[in-house]
Amino acid sequence: MKTIYEISRPGRRAASLPCSRVDESFCQMSQLPPELRRAQPAELPEVAEVDLVRHYTLLSRMNFGVDVGTYPLGSCTMKYNPKFTEQAARLPGFAGLHPLLPQLRRGGLLAQGALRVIHELEDLLKQITGMDAFTMQPLAGAHGELTGIMLMAAYHNDKGNQKSLVLVPDSAHGTNPASAAIAGYEVVTVPSKGGVMDPVAFKEMLNDQVAGVMMTNPNTVGLFNPYIAEIAEAAHQADALMYYDGANLNAIMGMAKPADLGFDIVHLNLHKTFATPHGGGGPGAGPVGVVERLRDYLPISRVEMRPDGTLFLNYDHPKSIGYVAPFYGNFGVCLKAFAYILALGGEGLKEVSQDAVLAANYLRVKLGDKWQVAFDKTCMHEVVFSAEDKVADHGVSALDVAKALIDAGFHPPTIYFPLVVKEALMIEPTETESLENLDALVAAMGRIADMAASDPEALHAAPVSTPVGRLDEVNAARHPVLQEPEA
C-alpha cells in the first residue's frame, strides 16, 4: 500500500474554504515572529477528498481492533466498548464545554453538569472499591500509579518517616517498579510461590524502611492471593501502605473491595474495567482512591459541594501533592465510564466479573488437554499457558503461536509475560465474548497445537494472510526506520 505522500499530487485539495473576514490588526498580532516562521511552506501531502478517505479507510481495514474480532490480550482487558457511552460523551452539553468555563456565573449553572458527573463518579468508585475519597485527574493507569506513590510519599513525609523501599512481587506489571522508582523509591522484588507472592518471603523482607507494597490481586497469572489479609496486616504493623494496582479489578467487582482486602491506595484503569476505549496512545484515565487518612494529600483541585448543593473546585488543601493534570483530567473518558456504571448498576458490574472469570476458566479447561497450563488451578479473569513444551518438542515458540493466531482471525494474546512463566501465553477473554467466540478460539488453538507437531515450519512462517509478513522484531527495535526513505 502506498503512503499518503506517494499518492500526493501538487495542487489537489481535500477541502476548499472561503477566506475569513478577520480584523487585519488581529491577524498581525497573531503572526509568529519572523525568526520562528518557516523559510518555505511545509511539504504536506496534497490529495483529493476521495483519495484521503480511501487511504485511511484502507489503513483501518489492515488493522485489528476489538470491533473486528476477539482480542484476548491478557492483563489489559481489551473488552468491547459499548457505543452508547460514545453517544453520551458527544452530548452537546458535555462535548461543547470549555475547561475554562466559569463554574457559576450570575446565578447560571454553566459547568455544574460536568462537575456533577465527576462528583457522582467519585461516589460510585468509592462504593465499588471501598475507598473514602478519589481524584479523577490522572490521565492513564501508569499516571495513576505515579500519583498513588506520590501520595504514599506525602503521607510518610508528613509523619516524618524516613522510608526508602517499596516491595513488589516478581509477577507485577512493569509499571509498578517503574512508578516507584520514578517517585524516588528503591524497589525490592518479592518471589512468588505457587503463582502468588510468598507471604513468608514477604515478611522476611518487610522492615521499617518499607514505605509500601504494590500488588495486583488477582495477579498477572490470574490467581487471587489467599494470603492478602495476612500480608496487609503485616504491612500496616510496619506503617507501610498497601497499594492496589487496579488493572485486574475486572475480576472482582461486586465480590470484593480493595479496601476490605486491606489496601490503602488504589488506581483504576477506566479503559479496562469500565469499557472506555483502550490503546493507540490514549485518551485514558486512571482515577486514584485513598482511605481516609490519605485524603488530605489528594491532588488539587477537588470537586466539592456547597451547603446549597452547588459544586465547585476547591484548591484549599494545604497538604495536597499539587497538580497532576490540567483542568479535570480526561473528562470525556470519565463520562463514558460514568454512563457504563449507571447502565449496568451494582448487579450488572458483579455479573461482568462473574462472566469474565467463567470465560477464563472455560478456556483453561477446554485448552488444558493440548496446552500446558502455567498454574493448573481455578483462575480469575485471565489464564496463563506456556509453550515451553512446544519449544522443547517441536521448536515452536510462543511468538510462533501468536503469529499463527493472526492467520486464524484472532488478535494474539499477551506473550512472554508475566516473566515468571517461560514462553507465556496470557489469555483474557473478557465477559463480552460469546460462547461461540470462545469455542472458535479453542478450535484455533487446537489446530495450532496439532500443527506444531505435524508442520512446525508452517508456524515459523506465520502470518501469511496479512499485508506484512513476519517482521525482524529485534532489528526493528534496534534500528527503527522512522521516515520514508528518499527516492
UniProtKB/TrEMBL annotation:
Domain Glycine cleavage system P-protein N-terminal: 111-299
EC number: 1.4.4.2
Catalytic activity: N(6)-[(R)-lipoyl]-L-lysyl-[glycine-cleavage complex H protein] + glycine + H(+) = N(6)-[(R)-S(8)-aminomethyldihydrolipoyl]-L-lysyl-[glycine-cleavage complex H protein] + CO2
Cofactor list: pyridoxal 5'-phosphate
Highest taxon of source: Bacteria
Enzymatic class: oxidoreductase
GO term, biological process aspect, one: glycine decarboxylation via glycine cleavage system
InterPro entries linked to this entry: GDC-P_C, GDC-P_N, GDC_P, PyrdxlP-dep_Trfase, PyrdxlP-dep_Trfase_major, PyrdxlP-dep_Trfase_small
Glycine dehydrogenase C-terminal domain mapped to chain residues: 353-450
Keywords: Oxidoreductase, Pyridoxal phosphate
Pfam families xrefs: GcvP2_C, GDC-P
GO molecular function: glycine binding; glycine dehydrogenase (decarboxylating) activity; pyridoxal phosphate binding
One Gene Ontology cellular component: cytosol
Annotated function: The glycine cleavage system catalyzes the degradation of glycine. The P protein binds the alpha-amino group of glycine through its pyridoxal phosphate cofactor; CO(2) is released and the remaining methylamine moiety is then transferred to the lipoamide cofactor of the H protein.
Protein name, per record: glycine dehydrogenase (aminomethyl-transferring)
Protein source organism: Desulfoferula mesophila
Taxonomic lineage of the native organism: Bacteria, Pseudomonadati, Thermodesulfobacteriota, Desulfarculia, Desulfarculales
